Amino acid sequence: MLPIAMLGGILFHNLIEVIAFVAPYLIFVMLLITFCKVKPHEFRVTRLSGALILVQILGSVLAYLALLPFNRELAEGAFICIFCPTATAAPVITGMLGGSIPRLATFSIVSNVSVAVLAPVLFSLMGSKADITFFESLATIATRVVPMIILPLFTAFAMLRYMPKVHSKIASHQSISFYIWSVSLFIVVGRAVSFIMAEPSEMIPEMLWLAGISLVACCAQFYIGRRIGRRCGDKIAGAQGLGQKNTVLAIWMALTYLHPIASVAPAAYVAWQNIINSCQLWKKRNRI
User: Fold this and answer.
1) CA 238, CA 85: separation in Å to the nearest integer?
2) How open is the CA angle 258-260-262, to the nearest 5 degrees?
3) What sign for the dihedral angle of Cα 121, 137, 134, 147?
4) What Cα–Cα distance (Å) separates residue 11 from each residue in 22, 48, 186, 204?
5) Of the ranges 111-120, 159-168, 276-285, which one carries the lowest mean pLDDT score?
6) Which pTM value belongs to this model?
7) Cα separation of 130 and 76, whole Å?
C-alpha cells in the first residue's frame, strides 16, 4: 500500500492541493489512536532522548561546517535534514514496527521543543536574512508543531479518564493508523513533487546534489539512531526518532531562513524516509 500511496502522490501531484488541508487532521487522528495504547506514567525522558537530541543538534552543525567550504546551499540542505525535528507521525510507525511508543513520543516532544528554541539562534549565526525576530520564530515553530503532538496526547489521556470504554475501543483498532498514514503519505509526496517541479530547470544539477545529500543524511540517521537505540534498549524507537523527520516543517524553515534551493533537500527526504519505512514494514509483515 505504501509504494502505491507514494506513486499516487507522484502521478496526481497537481490535484494534491485540493485535499492537502486534511493532512493535519489525519495526523491528529493517527496520533490519537496511537496514544490510546499508552498510559501517562509511561512517558518519561530517558538516556535515549538525551543521546538522540545530542546527535540531532551537534550532527547538523558539524555537517554544515564540513560542507560550507565547498557549497553553502549544499551545507544548508544537509543541516536542515539533520536539524529538523522528529516527525509527528513517528510514534505511529514506531508502534507498527513494535518499538516503544512512549519513548518515541517523549523524544518527539523533546526534539520539537529543542528545535523551536534553538532554530532562531542557529539560523542567526548562519547569517539568515529572514526578517523575523527570535520570539516570532519561536512562536511560529511552536504553534506549527507542539499542538500537533500535545493535543492528541491530552485527548487520549482525557478519554482514558472520562470515557474508558471508548478509549479501549480505539486502542484495540491500531491498524487503522496504517491506512490513515497511507493517505497522509499520498498527500505529503504529492506536495513534495509539486514543490520540486516548481524549481527552475537550470537548478537541476544542484537539486540532484541536494537529493543525494539528503539520501546520505537519511540513511546515516536511521543507522546511527538504531545503533544508539540498541544500546539504550529500543533500536526501533532510536531509528525512527532520529531518522523520521518533520519534512513539512523543514521545508518551511529552509524557505524562511536559508537559501530557497536548500529546501529541495528536505523535499527529497520525504521519498527517502518513506522508502525506508515501507521496507521496514514489509519486512516485519513477512517475518510475522
Assistant:
1) 13
2) 70
3) negative
4) 19, 39, 10, 20
5) 111-120
6) 0.78
7) 14
The Cα 252–Cα 258 span in angstroms is 10
Please report which helix (H) or strand (E) contains residue 146, including its range. Answer: helix 134-162
Q: HSE, CB side, 13 Å, CA atoms: give it for residue 116.
A: 19
Q: What Cα–Cα distance (Å) separates residue 68 from each residue in 27, 74, 127, 180, 203?
A: 35, 8, 13, 40, 19
Among residues 267, 249, 272, 246, the alpha carbon closest in space to that of 108 is found at 246
Averaged pLDDT of the chain: 83
Check residues 65 and 92 and name the one with the higher pLDDT: 65
* Residue 11, all three cell numbers: 502521478
Quote the cell numbers at residue 280.
521496514
**Is residue 267's pLDDT more than 80?**
yes
Domains, the chain, ordered by start? 2-287 (1.20.1530.20)
For 65-87, write each residue's pLDDT tens digit: 999 999 999 999 999 999 988 88
